[in-house]
């Protein structure tokens, strides 16, 4: 497979045409432009937020490319390079977002409309998941229509709201200025030109329209900004549909048994999920496995519960069960454009522990390019860190792994699955560690062979890293 780095392209252009600072960025961030840039899944693409106000939805378009602050790659075919500020300016005029995801047959499986008010907050929302469910929020009422049960449940927006990407304000603060990306301009996206932007924290790509500067796709979702059909945000109650009104002040209505069970199961599953995470983090693997098993019994699509159930079984030495559960997660994303690389790593280790070397190599080779890329773009290690620590997102930001700690852990993962050791040390100079990272990259380009080495020499994980070289 032919690979071309950013620095290679700049050399082709000629130094006289390229500013010196661009060459510096290219040397520091030169990455593979090939199609091996793969994307893990992300379970936050929609969330049901209980008792909270929705974050600014105008940022929905922005957040996908928020990390573009750090790097702009110059393409010799485009006289003016794409920059994040262009998208910031473009979204000021966004009033409606239309988001669609299709299955392999091209049929819509998830369609959403969002209206954004002048203040940047979500005003109205609609989500249709044919054939089972329709959600509409008209600004005063949230209606959830369970089509298969012929029942509509009405909520006050203060008690239950829906949105496309969860907690946008926090994600914007977390990503802006702290992540680096790779931009490849004017690539072909299903017959149209688009700038490809890599969202490192989720190892996920999005595509930006070169003319409007607005995102047109992220993961398996397509995004447009047209005016919605009339009545899109109207709460409509068809004749003959059972209505369960949970809004404050509403007359009591009979709640179907299936709905009561669903709500009760959801509450219990939430409690079990929380307790299981803490048990897993504490090394109480049998308890964690028991609790995660109860969660997936009632919430079959909860991918992190399946994953951590697999982690618990792996730690118990129950590798067949772990492989099954990791496979469940991988299968969940099989029809999307996203790849859970952290899960391929975990399953590869389980196969290796069973002595199934070919199966292990297949999974570990899937995860390897993203792991190598994370050595230079450490935000790419975020999902791997989260997979290793079920309490990661519960930690205050100042208690989460530092960049140096994440980098040391990623080096250890690589040493275990490759047997390679290039001398990385978090306490030595930046120049020495740059040589180690470059050696990893050169090894991957020239060899990239997997050799499971569970007793590999590991890098110490620093509690506090002094200034490099001191």
Q: How would you summarize this macromolecular structure in one to three sentences?
A:
It contains 14 helices and 14 strands. The chain has 470 residues and is α+β, with helices and mostly antiparallel strands.
Walk me through the structure:
With 470 residues, this protein is α+β, with helices and mostly antiparallel strands. The chain folds into two domains: 46-224, outer membrane lipoprotein receptor (LolB), chain A; 259-446, Alpha Horseshoe (Serine Threonine Protein Phosphatase 5, Tetratricopeptide repeat), CATH 1.25.40. It has helices at 6-13, 20-29, 59-64, 84-90, 168-175, 257-281, 285-298, 303-315, 319-332, 341-353, 357-374, 382-388, 403-418, 430-446, and strands at residues 47-50, 96-102, 108-116, 122-129, 133-137, 142-146, 151-155, 160-163, 183-189, 192-199, 204-208, 215-218, 221-224, 242-245. The strands form two sheets. Strands 9-10-11-12-13-2-3-4-5-6-7-14 form a twelve-stranded mixed beta sheet. Strand 5 and strand 6 (142-146) form a beta hairpin. Helix 7 runs antiparallel to helix 8 (303-315), helix 8 runs antiparallel to helix 9 (319-332) and helix 11 (357-374) runs antiparallel to helix 13 (403-418). Mean pLDDT is 80; it is low at 1-79, 166-178 and 466-470.
